[in-house]
Design goal:
Elements (H helix, E strand, L loop, with lengths): L1 E8 L5 H18 L3 E8 L6 E8 L2 H8 L2 H9 L10 E5 L11
Antiparallel strand pairs: 1-3, 1-4, 2-3
Helix pairs in contact: 1-3
Length: 104
């Protein structure tokens, strides 16, 4: 599995735009990519305008396929650096549970 946890801190005035384009990427990933096992889009409960993508792909090839999709291209073209209050961080994780074979 290839797992990413991406953290975004968004300026309040760009919140609605960020949520809209985040939904496009999450929906497209979840509903059109067979190699995408999970794509959660969440907001931090204690820190408004801090958002997370939790992405799980079968492997590197599935992640590369994700990066070649129309919804990802739309997300990349729409998200502007000036929307961000801090640099985006990406944690690349190793799967522990459930086992890779047990992912649904």
């Amino acid at each position: 599995m290839k797992i990413l946890v991406v953290k975004f801190q968004v300026k309040p005035e760009f919140r609605d735009e960020f949520i809209a384009i985040g939904m496009v990427d999450a929906d497209g990933s979840t509903n059109t990519e067979p190699g995408c096992r999970r794509f959660d889009f969440s907001e931090d409960e204690g820190n408004p305008n801090t958002f997370y993508f939790y992405e799980v792909y079968d492997n590197d090839d599935a992640f590369k396929a994700h990066q070649a999709t129309p919804h990802f291209a739309q997300y990349r073209a729409t998200l502007k650096p000036e929307w961000l209050a801090a640099p985006t961080t990406v944690a690349r994780c190793v799967n522990l549970f459930p086992s890779d074979a047990d992912w649904k």
